[in-house]
Amino acid sequence: MADVLEATTQAPVEAKAPQMTDGFHLVIDALKLNDIDTIFGLVGIPITDLARLAQAEGMRFIGFRHEQHAGNAAAIAGYMTQKPGICLTVSAPGFLNGLTALANATTNCFPMILISGSSEREIVDLQQGDYEEMDQLNAAKPYAKAAYRVLHAEDIGVGIARAIRAAVSGRPGGVYLDLPAKLLSQTMDALKGQQSLIKVVDAAPRQLPSPDSVKRALDVMKSAKRPLILLGKGAAYAQADAQIRELVEKSGIPYLPMSMAKGLLPDTHAQSASAARSFVLQEADCVMLIGARLNWLLAHGKGKTWGAAPKQFVQIDISPTEIDSNVAIAAPVIGDIGSCVSALVAGIDANFPKPSGEWTGAINERKNKNLEKMAATLAKNPSPMNFHSALRAIRDVLKTRPDINVVNEGANTLDYARSIIDMYEPRKRFDSGTWGIMGIGMGFSIGAAVTSGQQVVAIEGDSAFGFSGMELETICRYDLPVCTIVFNNNGVYRGTDVNPTGGKDVAPTVFVKNARYDKMIEAFGGIGFNATTPEELTHALQEAIKSGKPTLINAVIDEAAGTESGRLTNLNPQSAAMKK
């Protein structure tokens, strides 16, 4: 009886309080669950603690000086890995800065997710003047492949899963994910929170082409007398390198790579028609497009760029709505590039006709003529340096290191480097892309260095460098192996323009004369070089690569070197008017 009384008088055992989690941790856990380990961004209200906690949980946070460059880094990371790069920004102005990179990623089909904190919906919707009040979701929609907002902590897993799948499936692109400040501090049961997270399965499933479309494409190519394969950056993104090489070599068809497809096959490959670009575009009677669009970079598939003779186009694309966007496509092949190219390779048998010796011989004749002409130009050694002599020095160094990532932007700097610097490995060249925009340089360089862990050489016009030059501090802060080469000719296009009024203000295209960009990186603890001759440039680049440290070479070139708008004078209204 005493035992019974003792049992009934014992104090009741207190129930353990449930373990809780919050929106901050759920965002981080959802990203990590999907093998995303790096965030590019810039902290501030309301996402500073999200960045701190991400780092504490083992993720890498790369902090920038401007959100646009963080977004560009995320975009190029997505292009390199086929996983969406993540850019994290604050609300309103920070979001808008990141939106430029998001729009560029969508245009170029780079998978990235812009995650931005935002003001509270109930205040924004009533326009009551909240801190950095802005309807960010609707602002993002026209410039993103998809846009989502998460309002409840239990939906964070779904929101991130949907963003990942949207970014990489089908035609890749930029996705916006809106996280109001109140969401991040919401709490819920930790176990239920973990159960709400989603690991995305088969985010970008293969899309097999129909057998009829493959047969039609092969029949069109068989009938061609002067066939050409044109490789776009989508072909490089697909990582179907072996299949594409087999298609080119098994068919014997000459190929032409767009700038970011350079290196899919080495630029020195016997079938490369890069040195005869204008000739093959005009003379080919059948062109197979692989991961390339007939946009302005290809004169929309018509006009004098393509010659007078009618052409048939075969187009491999994952998006059926891209077909017939500018000209009629005789043989569309819809599906992922790897599957489509593999199907075409399987259909090339012993009876598939090789291109005629007349066609390949004409290409080689034009190639050799142009290469000899270029070699003569590159052999000159003017003083001061011009674009050609400086790029010759860079070309000869990079030839010994095909593993180096090359970032390239500018007007003349981009145009000349694209044709002079050979690439030997895929996804090693990153440039202004479909929009032809300036300002991608340092963002792409940081993204490429962080993603690959390998050396980056950024070849920059002095104007283009100005858009993102402050990110030198970011490069130094994270001790990244980035060598920036600034082609310094004292201005936009060139530094010789004058104010026609004779007034105090310099001409709109002129910068500070004899600027020393190398001193900028020294201010942040990096290594600077000043090069005025090809020999000095060669030595500086070799030393920069050897060091593996943040470096900048101020490459002084003739201020009269350069042409208005590079090779895009036809898009410049004044230049076009002067030609008439």
Automatic annotation (TrEMBL):
Annotated Thiamine pyrophosphate enzyme central domain residues: 214-344
GO MF assignments: magnesium ion binding; oxalyl-CoA decarboxylase activity; thiamine pyrophosphate binding
Ranges of residues in domain Thiamine pyrophosphate enzyme TPP-binding: 416-554
Keywords from the UniProt entry: Lyase, Magnesium, Metal-binding, Thiamine pyrophosphate
Record-linked Pfam families: TPP_enzyme_C, TPP_enzyme_M, TPP_enzyme_N
GO BP annotations, alphabetical order: fatty acid alpha-oxidation; oxalate catabolic process
Gene3D superfamilies, per database record: 3.40.50.970, TPP-binding domain (3.40.50.1220)
Requisite cofactors: thiamine diphosphate
Residue ranges of every copy of the Thiamine pyrophosphate enzyme N-terminal TPP-binding domain listed in the record: 23-137
Similarity-based family: Belongs to the TPP enzyme family.
Record's protein name: Acetolactate synthase
Species assigned in the record: Caballeronia novacaledonica
